[in-house]
């Protein structure tokens, strides 16, 4: 059947696609709602959210301490211990409080200290020496992490500034892609080559020429090892340089797609909001689904082991089945949301390509709110297609993650053969999952353009792009490089901003400040993660738009009939070695048809 009828996204007669998949997904959502209701009805996350005292009583859960939800550490002669803990209703505060009166259960020799609640489960010192003592004497890893979390939460103002800077850097990255993508890519590449070559040449020079007392300070100290490393670095620099020179034309073609993608984002203001909309919706959806899973997990029957902060949990077979179904639906729903986002971006990009002729005409011809049009078209007609493609990806993601757990378990058990086999299976499943993501993303492009069902859309998109396999491979490689570079650069900028705040802003740098962070490396890591997560929607947006533009150009080439060459058109007969040089020997094509005249 003909899968391309020559329509555009706004003119194609749309019909509901993959209706059986839509019905199955609706039934699964109904069953998922029942499982979630079971978790909300029978689960109690507070049982996992409260700690045990020195008598193994769970604060806020056991009858004896039902109204005492906070765990307090008694300061026995300047020492803290998990065995000297009691449950309290509220944290004692102020240095005038006497611990025997304020906290029942601590010995008379306990030292008073002011405290404040942490996450509603724990009392930690307000500051000063008590915090350092608690951190140095507390050996339980879960409680130490809880104190580190408190430090990070106390620095929320600094992290908010880091997030705002990351957003600005994301927009700046899009601006750079539009104005100087070529300069950034080739400049970064040749800078990297120069650094590799310089490092290799320096090691070779040091190991073969100088070899003085400075050698251990600037190298590894082993001349033979440094010579090998220098040869490898120099060879790698030369190899990358040769490959870059050979494929420069293909790379420039891919970079042009990036520039065109940046033009599309600039011409359609609603696309600038798409990263924030995706980030907000997917974060809210993830938190909602994670809350339901937390309630479902908390339906377990719990016992008390002889360790503070630990639990023994037991489930019946029904609850195991509920959790397995919930995890799969978790994957499936998140993938459907991602598929809808890809469809909306592809729909808006295809409209822009049609109205502006690929950016050749004025940007005033760009459509208004194409993302909203794409959202309505996707939800109304193609929810079954999204469910179909997302089901395939979700199923293989579950298998991949299960195999990853098997690999970790085999590694912990010390079984080298099982670890190797499981690792190979995990890599194969991950590669196949990436291929499926690429296939489904292309299918959504064709669905946006031709309103095809999933399987015909995937087949048609693969057929069209197969004729441009070189450009697709180059574009994907360049996209990966720019995504890594952009996300890494924004994450590094977030870490640098956090460092400046921790160094020069009194709110975080003053030890007397309540928001002072002693473990700055942890805060730097959190700042880098937040900045990287903020950067990902920008990277995904550029990736999806550039892929869609390549698909649009391929469709345009397919729909455009080849031009007929006039018989009387003059033909320049090539001359020179291999015909690479042309002369002024002009021959009419009609004369070439005369037998024997030109061989």
What does this protein structure show overall?
This protein is mostly helical and 599 residues long. Helices cover 66% and strands 7% of the residues. It has a two-stranded antiparallel ribbon. The protein has a two-stranded antiparallel ribbon with strand order 2-4. Strand 7 and strand 8 form a beta hairpin. Helix 1 packs across helix 9. The two termini are 43 Å apart. The C terminus is likely disordered.
Key structural traits:
globular; single chain; 66% helix; 599 residues; 10 strands; two-stranded antiparallel ribbon; 18 helices; mainly alpha; disordered C terminus
In short:
α10 (317-356) packs across α12. The chain is globular.
Estimated radius of gyration: 32 Å
In the predicted model, the low-confidence regions spanning at least 5 consecutive residues are: 96-101, 214-218, 305-309, 567-599
The helix content, as a percent range, equals 55-70%
Number of helices, where a helix is a run of at least 4 consecutive DSSP H or I residues: 18
Decide which structural class fits the backbone.
mainly alpha
Number of DSSP E strands: 10
